[in-house]
Design goal:
Helix content is about 20%, strand content about 40%. The protein is an alpha+beta fold.
């Protein structure tokens, strides 16, 4: 029977069903996203020792607020949050952002607990209880129903209710009961409500929705408003139960100061130091994705798999320190918070290391070999020889008969004998015993670098001064006289049965009993370190400093760092059988796809990609070693590499890819030194903003330094910008407008978060680019243009008036001068001519018919008469007095008739009544216009027919003078002489004086037409 005390407790408030559904759906969606993203990420392989996990630690020297880590959680946005005794920190894998009493008012510095509810809100237990969501804090204190002590534990039940504990670990103070917290209010339950103790620690809700409560005096169960209590009498190791944890099966684990307890099917099962735990003081419990239970104690870390407990040794801090907190992130990394040694991360890396922690004697490995019995032999630089048998290493050294402790070469001959090359000679291992050969036995040198057996059974030995061949117990040596170089790195028999000899200065081939240096194919001092051959005979050579080289069909192609190769020096090369070449170098192991290498050689691409592995992938040190062989491909696809910190192995057939695309966060936006926290809203920046900076991060903790980024500023960038690992983008002198900054990221395995993160903003236009300013400027410009236009028109009108006034004055002056001349001719010359004519006529009357002077008098009379006529014509031209007597129309018709009679041109005229339409002085001007047109046509056109048409429409007069003469190019410019000859200047001046217009149309060979329009002034 399980003893219990039951006391009913009732709460009036019940969480509304719709709110429960909303909370559940939100939490469910977050979980689905995380689980789908992490579906191919696994927890730590329980078959590995803790030392074989990739391990990293962060302390206060790295930005952690303080080295005691009380709690660790990850929020749905991907950030890791760490609670310490000096505040809590947000961690992005590279830097810590610290929140404490100095940075956040109302927050205590000693952070006891962190908790993320199903809505994604972060809760902080310190002085009071604090929520953090979307960059904002909300503080709750005793005024909100909380106990007046620090909140040290928190959890959430199936209804979304938070349960808070406030007890001290030492059980001496701080007992304030259990607090039920929902909707921002707390309700405190104490022993008065049925609890076994007011010292409350952790709580957990099991698969049936029952609340389990750890207290200072027994384990309490709360169900249906009643408390049930379990103690040592029920099988617990102790009544002090500070740790309560529900695993994925819904079972309850209880940590006490005297061991661990599992409650399943009504029975407690105990785990103590007698069952394999490192200590009975339980501090933390966590179950990873693969179901392994991790247990932190007062002295070290433990793991329970399939019901068996194991204390984990191999990392000093995790084996000796108190383990306060354990947490597994989205990507399967296990985070461990310690009492004083900081924050630790364990990760199941792609490589598994075998070194000193696994029993390897000598950490720097130079050679790896698998014999026909499937035993793995590992030669070290100073620790001798190791063989892996029965899941443990067995070591051989000089004490066991090995010639030397530096084992660079391992080989098995056809008879099954194992040969080991050391710096002190050759070793043959048979029947458990070593047999030695050195320089005194005929070897070229005792320093053996590589070993090979040819088809005849001869053993070829590469040394630091040449080649020795062991045949029938005798040595034959080849020196630099026939080889290129002296130090021999390796031998290789290709598919054509040629034996390649690689030295530190070049390659030679042994064929048909002769060594032939290959100087014509390879560059000088070609220091080959290893080789791999394809099925078609293509050879891939790694070198010291000269990159990877492909020899195909007699053509050598070199690949270097300029081509995308990770390193120009590679000691080893392996073909994984899946289309990749793996190479070990001083900076790690890297692989390249052979298809890319071939495409590069064929000119299809100009860059190759290298996938790099190092310490973040499980290598204890990234530097690999040279040896014979220093890399090994096993039949099951595993690839082994010799490193300076043990041997490492990776299964090329089962490489676990990190499929979790890193959540992207834009942490900060800085515009001209003003910081803005992106919150989903658009920002408006002032006009003239010159510098905009974006700080972003991709939250992948597997290898945060290998997260790659691309960004684009929509509205500015046309294409994505490859930022590499840089986590800041800068823009300067952005034009006013709307922008959207987008950033995407890829994790260490190249899985991209294509959606990424974004923030929108607007750079405001200065006032002089605002619409109202444009409208105002347009209005001002319009008014100014209109004013200038009106001023220009008025000025032109004034100029025209002055010109017309001047023209009128000039023409009137001309007319007055004409009138004066006409009067002078009439009164003086005309009268004198008449007198002469009269004197001549009188002389004729007084002279007889046959008088000698009669002929002269008749001539004088006739000439005088003609002169009088010409004077009268000149007087008429100078002053058409007929206008005053006969009118303008009659005068024009009379003039046309006179011109027709005197020129012989066929002239016709149609003239409307123009009398009394113009002022007397303007009538003369109209007459002169017609006279000028006629004169031009008669004198210059060569026409046979001229038609004059004068029409009247009200006060508008249209004069048309058309001829069928030779015409001219009307649009061609006329020089001053030609223009004067055509009488156009006078015609234009007279028309302008009357405010009219002139238009001339002329076609070569078809005649000319002059159009004049005049508006007679009104009354």
């Amino acid at each position: 029977m399980i003893s219990s005390r039951e006391t009913p407790v009732k709460f009036v408030y019940k969480l509304p069903l719709i709110l429960k559904i909303r909370i559940f759906l939100k939490y469910f969606l977050v979980c689905v996203v995380v689980c789908c993203a992490a579906r191919q990420i696994f927890a730590l392989d329980p078959r590995k020792s803790i030392a074989q996990y990739a391990h990293r630690v962060w302390t206060s020297n790295d930005g952690l607020p303080q080295d005691s880590v009380n709690a660790i959680v990850q929020t749905p946005d991907g950030y890791l949050w760490v609670a310490t005794q000096e505040g809590f920190a947000r961690f992005d894998g590279v830097k810590f952002t610290v929140f404490d009493a100095s940075t956040t008012d109302g927050l205590g510095s000693f952070i006891h607990t962190l908790f993320v509810d199903r809505a994604g809100t972060l809760w902080i237990g310190s002085i009071g209880f604090t929520s953090y969501s979307k960059g904002k804090f909300q503080f709750y204190t005793s005024a909100d129903g909380l106990p007046d002590v620090s909140v040290k534990y928190s959890s959430e039940d199936a209804d979304g209710v938070l349960w808070l504990g406030a007890a001290n670990r030492d059980r001496t103070s701080g007992g304030k009961g259990l607090t039920r917290f929902e909707n921002g209010r707390g309700t405190i339950l104490t022993t008065k409500n049925g609890l076994s103790s007011d010292q409350i620690y952790q709580t957990a809700t099991d698969k049936n929705g029952v609340l389990w409560i750890g207290t200072g005096n027994g384990l309490n169960v709360y169900q249906d408003g009643r408390f049930k209590i379990y103690t040592t009498a029920d099988g617990l190791t102790s009544d002090f139960t500070p740790i309560v944890y529900k695993d994925r099966a819904g079972d309850i684990w209880v940590g006490t100061n005297k061991g661990l307890n599992l409650y399943r099917n009504g029975v407690f099962t105990r785990f103590t130091t007698g069952d394999g735990l490192s200590d009975n003081g339980i501090r933390s419990i966590y179950e990873d994705k693969d179901g392994a239970l991790w247990v932190g104690t007062d002295k070290g870390l433990n793991r329970i798999v399939n019901g068996k407990a194991q204390a984990l040794f191999g990392i000093e801090e995790l084996a000796n320190d108190r383990i306060f907190s354990i947490y597994e992130d989205f990507e399967g990394s296990l985070w461990i918070g310690t009492h004083s040694s900081g924050l630790h991360r364990l990760r199941d890396a792609k490589f598994t290391a075998y070194g000193a922690p696994e029993g390897l004697f000598g950490d720097s490995v130079q050679s790896i070999f698998q014999d026909s019995a499937q035993r793995l032999w590992i030669g070290t630089s100073d620790g001798g020889l190791n063989v892996w048998e029965n899941n443990r290493f067995r070591a051989f050294s000089a004490k066991d008969g090995l010639a030397g402790n530096r084992v660079r070469a391992i080989y098995e001959d056809r008879a099954g004998n194992l040969w080991f090359g050391t710096e002190a000679g050759l070793n043959k291992f048979a029947n458990g015993k070593f047999e030695h050969y050195n320089a005194s036995d005929g070897l070229a040198s005792s320093n053996i670098r590589t070993i090979y057996e040819d088809d005849t059974g001869a053993l070829w030995l590469g040394t630091d001064v040449g080649v020795s061949v062991l045949k029938d117990g005798k040595f034959r040596n080849f020196s630099s006289d026939v080889l290129i170089g002296t130090g021999v790195n390796f031998f290789y028999r290709d598919a054509r049965r040629r034996l390649w000899i690689a030295s530190d200065e070049g390659l030679s081939i042994y064929e048909n009993g002769e060594i032939v240096p290959q100087k014509d194919v390879f560059p000088p001092e070609f220091n080959a370190q290893s080789v791999s051959e394809d099925a078609d005979g293509t050879l891939w050579w790694t070198t010291w400093g000269q990159g990877l080289n492909r020899l195909k069909d007699g053509k050598l192609t070199a690949y270097t760092t300029k081509s995308g190769l990770y390193d120009n020096t590679a000691w080893t090369i392996l073909d994984d059988g899946k289309g990749n070449l793996w190479m070990g170098c001083n900076r790690g192991v890297f692989r390249v796809a052979k298809q890319e290498l071939n495409d590069f050689a064929d000119g299809k691409i100009n860059i190759i990609g290298s996938i790099v592995y190092g310490t973040v992938n499980g290598m204890r040190k990234r530097e690999t070693n040279a040896g014979s062989p220093a890399a090994l491909r096993m039949k099951d696809g595993r690839l082994w590499f010799a490193t300076t910190a043990g041997a490492v192995v990776i299964n090329a057939n089962d490489i676990v890819t990190n499929h979790v695309a890193p959540p992207m966060v834009i942490e900060n936006l800085i515009a001209d030194d003003q910081s803005y926290a992106p919150n989903g809203e658009r920002f408006d920046f002032e006009a003239g903003t010159k510098n905009v900076e974006f700080q972003y991060v991709g939250l992948s903790f597997v290898a945060p330094e290998r997260v790659k980024y691309k960004y684009k500023l929509e509205g500015f960038d046309q294409n994505w910008i490859d930022a590499g690992a840089r986590r800041t983008a800068y823009y300067t002198n952005l034009a006013p407008g709307d922008y959207k900054f987008r950033v995407i990221g890829a994790n260490n395995d190249g899985v991209w978060n294509e959606q990424g993160a974004s923030v929108e903003f607007r750079v405001l236009a200065p006032f002089w680019r605002a619409w109202w300013f444009f409208a105002l400027v347009l209005l001002v410009l319009s008014v100014a243009i209109f004013a200038v236009f009106r001023w220009r028109i008025a000025r032109l009108e004034r100029v025209n008036r002055r010109q017309r006034f001047f023209s009128r004055q000039l023409i009137e002056s001309q007319e007055r001068e004409r009138k004066r001349i006409a009067a002078e001719l009439h009164d003086n010359l005309g009268q004198r001519l008449i007198i002469i004519k009269n004197w001549a006529s009188l002389g004729l009357k007084l002279t007889g018919e046959k008088a000698p002077a009669r002929a002269q008098l008749e001539e004088i009379s006739t000439t005088a008469l003609q002169a009088i006529g010409e004077v009268r014509e000149i007087i008429y031209d100078l002053r058409p007095v007929q206008i005053e007597t006969s009118g303008l129309s009659s005068t024009i018709k009379f003039t046309v008739e006179q011109v027709a009679a005197s020129s012989g041109v066929n002239l016709t005229i149609e003239c409307a009544d123009l009398d009394d339409l113009f002022a007397p002085e303007d009538e003369v001007t109209v007459y002169r216009i017609v006279q000028e047109c006629l004169s031009n046509a008669v004198k210059h056109s060569g026409a046979e027919n001229i038609a004059v048409l004068i029409e009247r429409d009200g006060r508008a007069v249209k004069i048309t003078v058309a001829d069928d003469g030779k015409g001219f190019v009307a649009d061609a410019p006329l020089d001053a002489d030609r223009r004067a000859g055509f009488g156009l200047n006078g015609l234009n001046e007279r028309v302008k004086m009357l405010g009219g217009s002139v238009q001339i149309q002329s076609v070569i060979g078809k005649g000319t037409t002059v159009f004049v329009e005049i508006e007679a002034p009104g009354d």
